[in-house]
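During the second year of the project, the team shifted from modelling isolated chains to modelling whole assemblies. The rationale, set out in the original proposal, was that interfaces cannot be judged from single-chain predictions alone. As a representative example for this report, we include one of the complexes processed in the last quarter. Its constituent sequences, exactly as entered into the pipeline, are reproduced here:
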Amino acid sequence: QITLKESGPTLVKPTQTLTLTCTFSGFSLSTSGVGVGWVRQPPGKALEWLALIYWDDDQRYNPSLKSGLTITKDTSKNQVVLTMTNMDPVDTATYYCVHFYYGSGSHGFDYWGQGTLVTVSS
Amino acid sequence: DIQMTQSPSTLSASVGDRVTITCRASQSISSWLAWYQQRPGKAPKVLIYQASNLESGVPSRFSGSGSGTDFTLTISSLQPDDFATYSCQQYDRYPYTFGQGTKLEIK
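Output from the structure prediction step:
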């Protein structure tokens, strides 16, 4: 059974750096084709893909946010960490961790964490 | 970036109705399209992957079709549980992008 869970601060101040951790179980991030990523959703708005990291440490970012994003993995701990620098109130959103398989058998983002609401406010 | 445009933005329907939601990509994405259902306060759930494949455990009243730039999600007979927001997503090219969502409301 695949599960993912996000953790991190619920409130950050403008200009601060946000660090979110995704802790997962039920799969290995060392298996070929497997990736873990982040998607966010501002209140009442659409979903936005942020970043993905793959089993081979290939990292992909949304160019609209690239300069402020870093995604890393710790395979031994079954964790993926996302950092976002220079947070702004427009970054207030629910942040989701997702499982992804890259390849002909891909089901899209087939498993999601419960999400964590991050508010950016002074 | 590939733009994903859904229509309509809001859809009012009754239990038992057949409804169709469309999603158009700004360029061809082959069949690399997924549909998600999202209930208020919950994470999205994949319904359809690769445009027309039903995810395991999803009721057969949901179906998807299309390829290239034009896609549809059809619910053959609406159930009370189906009133939610539906989003399409392309995963052909980075950055992966979502449609703006279609809110399915009870008429």
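The two ends of chain A are 40 Å apart (CA to CA). Chain A touches chain B at residues 46-49, 52, 60-64, 96, 100, 106-110, 112-115 (CB under 8 Å).
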